[in-house]
Amino acid sequence: MTDYFRGAWARTLVSRLRCWKVLLLWIHVxxxxxxxxxxxxxxxxxILAYVPQAKEVLFALFEPFAISQTPLFFDPGRTLPxxxxxxxxxxxxxxxxxxxxxxxxxxxxxxxxxxLTSFGDRRIYLRAVVWVPRxxxxxxxxxxxxxxxxxxIFPGTQSMLVPIGCAxxxxxxxxxxxxxxxxxxxxxxxxxxxxxxxxxxxxxxxLTLGARIGTGQTFVITLLLNLLPALLHLGLIFRRALLRGxxxxxxxxxxxxxxxxxxxxxRLLSIAICTAGLLFFVTLTPxxxxxxxxxxxxxxxxxxxxxxxxISLWFARVVRxxxxxxxxxxxxxxxxxxxxxxxxxxxxxxLDPPTMTPFAPEAEAERSPLSDRDVILNAHGGGxxxxxxxxxxxxxxxxxxxxKFGQRLSTASxxxxxxxxxxxxxxxxxxxxxxxxxxDCSPSVLNSTVTSQSLVDRVLLNDFLSPVLANxxxxxxxxxxxxxxxxxxxxxxxxxxxxxxxxxxxFASPLSSLGQSxxxxxxxxxxxxxxxxxxxxSTGRRMEFNNHKADACGHLTSIGEAVxxxxxxxxxxxxxxxxxxxxxxxxxxxxxYDNSGAEALTEYVPNVPxxxxxxxxxxxxxxxxxxxxxxxxxxxxxxxxxxxxxRKGHASEAEDRLKDLVKKSGxxxxxxxTLSLDEAFNRTILDRQQRCAFVRTLRSAPLGWYMTRTxxxxxxxxxxxxxxxxxxxxxxxxxxxxx
Length: 739
Known about the structure:
Blueprint: H1 2-33, H2 35-50, H3 52-67, H4 76-105, H5 108-111, H6 119-153, H7 161-183, H8 189-211, H9 216-247, H10 261-284, H11 293-319, H12 326-341, E1 360-361, E2 375-380, H13 383-400, H14 404-408, E3 409-414, H15 417-434, H16 443-446, H17 452-460, H18 465-472, H19 484-500, E4 517-518, E5 524-525, E6 529-536, E7 542-546, H20 559-566, E8 576-580, E9 583-589, H21 598-601, E10 612-617, H22 626-629, H23 638-664, E11 671-674, H24 677-680, H25 688-698, H26 709-714, H27 716-729
Parallel strand pairs: 1-4, 2-3, 2-10, 3-6, 10-11
Antiparallel strand pairs: 4-5, 6-7, 6-9, 8-9
Helix pairs in contact: 1-6, 2-4, 2-6, 2-11, 3-4, 3-6, 4-6, 4-9, 4-11, 6-7, 6-9, 7-8, 7-9, 10-11, 10-18, 11-18, 13-15, 13-17, 13-27, 15-17, 15-20, 17-19, 18-19
């Protein structure tokens, strides 16, 4: 009996040691041989899971199918972004599988085979070499599929069960398809057990997703996202049998067979050149809208994986060192050295000026003298969301007041997204005046389809992010002049020209033309003073672009250039260059010096009684949903938190100084207008706990230059609330529209 138990204990120990050996060999293949695809998948997961803008962009892939009542599958213009994303995602997953396969098989006999002492170890290793690359490719596509399904069908959810469920569904289909095809001829009993479990799970998940879908078109896209990983997985497993069946041939090469580096170098180089060439082509033809933002990011990850694999394999050949986890440190150190010695590329953005800029005619009876302009405003906030909120609020007030609000506007100061919103509003107002708007203020005319708000939507609800990312991941990686700022500026110009035409005021027009109009006698009538604020890198001081003063830079500054200097979002936009009388200077976002734009207004408080001050904040308030947040958590990086807090404190001091000046001039209390996300989503997300959890993810400033129409519609409630608040403060201004 004692010998029996000793033998059982020994067998258990050997079994456990064998399990550990199997696990270590699989870990060696995953993180040692195939470390580069593992890093790419980790980066992919980080972008999809922790970048708020990624969820907005992925939601846009579902938006055309969800809101349209007509078939879109024969409308290439609206379905191209979704189809291109599916193709690029499939290509990236295939690339990661191929890179992992090469990293684990090229020169394997010289680097790994001699270290495997037993035949059992070699069998375990070969099995890992076969299956790890396959699951890398399938796992990458499952990650993309689950992220897209979560963003498109369950927007606003914060439960981890939702993305896990969206990932389990295509994973279940892939495993079930593999089991059925490989094991069905053998009629194993366990096959029916697995099928009996997996099939109901997959059907249940598909029906659950289908219950959340509004149209059959979206259900087809959902089904395609669930089936693509399974199709890729089965294609990787049975590709050789399929190729032999289609093209013939009897050669059978083991999937884990060792390959020579000389045979695969040409393929890797061709893949890298094709991917990089496609990115460069997109940068040269932004007007074609060939690729969306996620396509550009996925192409860049694929190019990095291909080039990194080629370098890693050749370096391993030279030094006879097996690629391992140590390569991660080598590449990180190399990247740090390159970034440390490389000079920052500055943006030298320019727009060709138009031949003539017509100004908006105003009737003499409606023209407001400068002494009657009693409204000042400052607008601030990050990115396109703040620009849309600012332009929409001002446009709504203009419509409600039958154009009288713009006549009372004395000075407008903008920072970052607020500058973009102010400039967009004023250009649209000039266009509306040229078209004869607000000559008839009857309700039927005010409620027409062409309004200032509809023009704001057409200008701002565009994809400004894709060409920026395409330049960021291609041309701007080279030691040449940065082009992503010019790509952003060109995108603004295309949007305003497509909406208002070339004959009106555009971003290429001189800054001095912003807000101007002509009176009945043909005399130039200056509009409100517009202050677009930037920050000088060398001094940290504020630099002001004023439409009523001489250009600060040594050339005729356009509206778009001044807005870009004020809204240079970090990383997305490079630092700008400006040639002044004292020499060249570098400019960054105006929010570095004053994050509110109130500092510039202190010099332009009008000397009129009862001055009205509008403070438009396009960022959600930090104390929103504070009752559900509990006690505030301590920041992990106190130094960075203190720098950000000091910037906010400086902006608050500037607002306090402006408030005192307005009071001294006989003005009233400021009208504080803040974008409330809790108010924006109270109709779509009924549960306040879930709504506040969703709002927390949206507080951080997005990458800036993309927003879906669904998000814009959700912002309609706080926009209307802010416009009503302005009308009440300026009463009876908006009452004139009803007369």
